[in-house]
């Protein structure tokens, strides 16, 4: 499998402005700064496709991308949906609450979402907010949906930290956007989750 093409479609500032449903979607979520945009750029192999920003919590838009996978002789059309980072947003509490309600409404009502790619920082595997998000996802998961959990920034761990983490989470995927390790492996896992129900 390869991603044959990927292009930006739209930034929706609110759910009302989201694209029409109908095409299978992979939704990416995780805390701000976890490496979500970088990961989308890594797997599509297009630098700058998803805007990577050094200001945590700045993106409050739902970004849609059109993806064409090629596997064997067949092409598969899909969409990536880059969701705004949970938590962290540098906005007022009221605004934050409003956004999170918006986001959960979107996540729960969007039939097209078939895969949740949940990204977390390999350096902080026990982050309480991530645990909450994972519990939340598991609680709303439909039978036609899957979660693919990916730990980013694996390059920041030393060998003993890595083996400890792997022992605790044998199925976890550890990637590095910086060193491009396990990127194609993770890409394939997402594709499998999307099409091999
Ligand atoms: N060392 C390292 N840094 C990364 C990795 N992935 C992303 N970053 C850095 O982390 C910061 C946030 O990345 P970004 O993709 O914008 O995160 P997002 O907010 O989740 O979309 C940027 O400075 C990236 O260069 C990684 O795998 N390893
Ligand atoms: Mg981002």
Outline the fold blueprint.
Layout: E1 2-12, E2 25-29, H1 36-44, E3 62-71, E4 74-82, H2 93-109, E5 113-121, H3 128-140, E6 146-152, H4 159-168, E7 173-174, H5 183-195
Parallel strand pairs: 2-4, 2-5, 5-6, 6-7
Antiparallel strand pairs: 1-3, 3-4
Bound molecules: guanosine-5'-diphosphate (GDP) and magnesium ion (MG).
Describe this structure in words.
This protein is α/β, with parallel strands linked by helices. The mean pLDDT is 90. It is globular, with a radius of gyration of 16 Å. A seven-stranded mixed sheet has the order 1-3-4-2-5-6-7, with helices on both faces. The protein starts with a strand and ends with a helix. The site of magnesium ion has 3 residues, from helix 1. Guanosine-5'-diphosphate binds next to helix 1.
Average pLDDT level: 90
CATH class: Alpha Beta
Radius of gyration: 16 Å
> Helix- and strand-based class?
alpha/beta
As residue ranges, the low-confidence spans are none
Name the ligand types. guanosine-5'-diphosphate, magnesium ion
User: How many beta-strand elements?
Assistant: 7
CATH architecture label: 3-Layer(aba) Sandwich
For the biggest sheet, the summary is: 7 strands, mixed
The general outline is globular
Q: State the distance separating the first and last CA atoms.
A: 16 Å
CATH superfamily: P-loop containing nucleotide triphosphate hydrolases
Per the CATH scheme, the topology name is Rossmann fold
